[in-house]
Design a protein that fits this description.
A hairpin with an 8-residue loop joins strand 1 and strand 2. The chain has 14 helices and twelve strands. Helices cover 43% and strands 16% of the residues. The protein is of the alpha/beta class. The protein folds into two domains: 279 residues, Aminopeptidase, CATH 3.40.630.10; 111 residues, Alpha-Beta Plaits.
Amino acid sequence: MKFGIPLCVFCAVSAQLLLPAPALPQTTPTERAAARQVVAEIDALQARIKPAELARRMAAGRDRGRDRLFQRVEELWTTSLRDLSDHIGRNPEVGFQEYHAVDTLTAVLKAHGFSVETGQAGLETAFVGSWDSPAGSDGPTLGVIVEYDALRSTHEAFHGCQHNGQGPVGFASAFAIVEYMKEESLPGRVRVYGTPAEEMGPPPKVAMWQAGVFEAADILVRSHGSDETNRNKAGFGVCCLNINEVRYIFTGRAAHQRSSWFGRNALSAAVQFYSAVDALRPTLRPEASIQGVIPEGGIAPNVVPDRVVVDYYLRYPDEVYLAHIDSMIANAARGAALATGTQVTIEHYGEYRDGITLGTLEELVFAYAEALNAPGINPEPQRPAGYEETGFVTRDIPGVGVSVFTSPAPGHSYARWQDSMKPVGHTGFLLDAKIMSAVLYHFLTDERFRETVKEEHRAMAAWLEQYLTGLRETYGDEIGH
């Protein structure tokens, strides 16, 4: 099969290329231009593998093995794991401090026959639960990602993203598939990846990916609360735009306010820098999102500050133009330091990048959501979003996120937190677990489907670098290429 330059980050239908762009904030004309030559090839791949048709066929009718899984998932959820979700929900812990949640979750894993290793990638609250089949480990390695961190707030930590449910949901699917593999003497392995601090930087999943924690997995599944049941288009994308997390640390010389001329004011440098960033905004493309705070601004009004920190999240739909934004802002920081006689150190402490979304897995999830009568179904495919927020993992390992309707409330809200412990949340979580178990079941037992997933992932991964090259050529002189 011939592979060319890659798919537009959030576009897969060639017939739409010449039409006005859909009203999606992360879809830009530049992205479409960079993909113009290969959209037909992407369409041809999707047309050949027919993921929606394949998924509907797999989800339809009776399948004794799958139906046994569904029954067992429901038993596990209603007898213990629903209560575990509520318990974590009532005891929220912010990122990197999820000690009680991790102790509880790992104890449950051990009770179900998993060995557990904590402290993954140097992160105290990251863990991997491992189970190897008595029938041998030469079958596929099925990976489940779970999260358990709560959001920060000026009042109290709270599970506004419903991460309290993700561990128990993942456990229900993992435990049911382990029992099925035992009963059927199927070779393979199951890994449960406990990933902390999804809402904080630096992104722990990137650290875990860099440390090789996910390397053994052949597929990864995860769940997340949502205000609708949907699926994403095949392509490249990430939930929250490409992000650079950057600290600009200005250092000067302290002095008393009454002899300030002996000092070098790091706060003055930071204020100039902050103003310079605002002045840059009209020169950057409108899709850019640049937000910052000054978490360290000095010690006392009568002391010239000798250390000030400015913390920015730089976001853009593609990583090529994001690098241009990053360069422009770094120059602004250096200029402010030069103008004030201070120094600046620039620390890139976190990155989020585009991930790969696979039609085979997205359509399978959606077909089961429809078959199980999931609430809040949106029939329109959404832009590609990868299956987890860092993107890097999805470039190496095929996977999918399951998002069934769990609350009508906005994300990151107290109302969504409360809904995670009500029937609306419980119902959605149970469906998430059933759908995740179905994905793992088909990947485990259907070799042809497994190879189709891998083929699609190989193709998309091969196109990604070519896509980035196409972006650089399209931007051209605008970003100095």
